[in-house]
Specification:
binds pyridoxal-5'-phosphate; Lyase, Ornithine Decarboxylase, Chain A, domain 1; TIM Barrel; elongated; alpha/beta; eight-stranded parallel beta barrel; 2 domains; seven-stranded mixed β-sheet; 390 residues
Length: 390
């Protein structure tokens, strides 16, 4: 416990800074898209930016093979662009697997990184040729092994998510004593437990989290070898941040930490990552419209035609988007809500926006290509956002 606290203390002192310019979709394209017509909220995606982001990722970390997290934005044109750039993929479900197979992605390039999978899903993935499966418990190890005894397995370990806008630790990730049990069980079963993975938390602004994760993985590799297992995969997960309103470390800054930490790994160790947000966010604007405004108990409210259920859900966990309008009045504090009747459909409670925003105005959210259209539902009968890709 004491060592754990020491690690956390060190992470808290990390400086956050912008060191390299970031790209964003040019607003001229958004203007043209709105002029072309508007019937419902839409996400406008430029695949050239997706292409440039994966190239930049690979240039920064030449030894790290990117496997795109399909959940961030599963649009087929986004996936095709990444296929052309030689990416592999990470999936959470068999629907994502089917999508990739329909685009002729070899099953061997697909890693099943959801730590909790139904028996039926594992059977389906195994039948369709997926080789690699994650786990973080003895039960999941036994489940996968009973279905596919020759599966290649990687172990998700718990790692600090300090400095991440969207922490993921807690729900998944084995703790040290559980790691010991999982390794012993794999050795006893003769299962091919061959890798380690971790996730530093989404929109991670603290590069040291990757160092801590990689150093922990090395200790687990040593434990595996002692148990007679043959570790040969390090999967450093997702979490690479994009620009919204807070400063972020560039991918090159994170790469300095990662490249240094993986330098002493044996050459036969495959190193991969699972970037989601980083590859698609900057490539898109989310566009929606003001349905109406109101004053309630002295507070100004505006209601958009897309809210928590329409794709703008990440504000619920503290992600702060930049928001643009066509107005230039004095900025005042607004409560911003979605169009549904659900009281939890409130996006922001103290958002500075021009006081002259009115019904019918357009709202433009840059760098919104990830976890927007893929999160949206039809709740209350409102339409899903349209995804326009060029
Ligand atoms: C297992 C796994 N890998 C990768 C990602 C992608 O994370 P990010 O979009 O932050 O890069 C996620 C996101 O939830 C995930 O659960």
């Amino acid at each position: 416990m004491q060592m754990r606290n020491a690690v956390y203390k060190e992470l808290e002192t990390e400086q956050l800074f912008d060191t390299h310019p970031e790209t964003s979709l040019d607003f001229i394209h958004v203007r043209r898209a709105v002029e072309a017509g508007y019937t419902r909220p839409f996400l406008l995606v430029d695949t050239q930016i997706v292409r440039s982001k994966i190239r930049r990722f690979k240039a920064a970390m030449p030894r790290v093979h990117p496997h795109y997290a399909v959940k961030a934005n599963p649009h087929p044109q986004v996936l095709r662009t990444l296929i052309e750039e030689g990416a592999g993929f990470e999936i959470a479900s068999i629907a994502e697997l089917d999508l990739l197979l329909s685009l002729r992605v070899p099953a061997a390039e697909v890693y099943y990184s959801n730590p909790m999978k139904s028996r039926e899903y594992v059977e389906y993935a195994a039948r369709h040729g997926v080789l690699w499966y994650v786990l973080d418990s003895v039960e999941e190890l036994r489940k996968i092994h009973s279905i596919k005894p020759d599966a290649r397995l990687y172990l998700r370990i718990d790692t600090p998510n300090i400095g991440s806008d969207w922490p993921l630790s807690g729900k998944f990730g084995a703790h040290p004593d559980e790691v010991t049990d999982i390794i012993a069980t794999a050795a006893a079963l003769g299962a091919d437990l061959a890798g380690v993975t971790f996730h530093v938390g989404s929109q991670c602004r603290n590069p040291k989290n990757w160092r801590v994760g990689i150093e922990s993985a090395k200790r687990v590799f040593a434990q595996m070898r002692l148990a007679g297992l043959k570790p040969r995969l390090l999967n450093i997960g997702g979490g690479y941040p994009v620009r919204h309103v807070k400063p972020i470390p560039s991918i090159e800054t994170i790469a300095d930490v990662v490249n240094d930490a993986i330098r002493d790994l044996p050459p036969e160790m495959r190193v991969m990552a699972e970037p989601g947000r980083y590859l698609v966010s900057d490539a898109a604007y989310f566009v929606c419209r003001v349905v109406g405004t109101a004053t309630r108990a002295g507070k100004r409210w505006m209601y958009w035609d897309a809210g928590v259920f329409g794709g703008i859900i990440e504000t619920q966990e503290g992600l702060i988007y930049e928001i643009r309008t066509d107005r230039n009045g004095r900025e005042i504090s607004w409560v911003v809500a979605g169009p549904t009747c659900d009281s939890m459909d409130v996006l922001m409670r103290d958002q500075m926006l021009p006081e002259d925003v009115q019904e019918g105005d357009f709202i433009y959210i840059p760098n919104a290509g990830a976890y927007t259209s893929s999160y949206a539902s039809n709740f209350n009968g409102f339409p899903l956002p349209e995804v326009r890709v060029f």
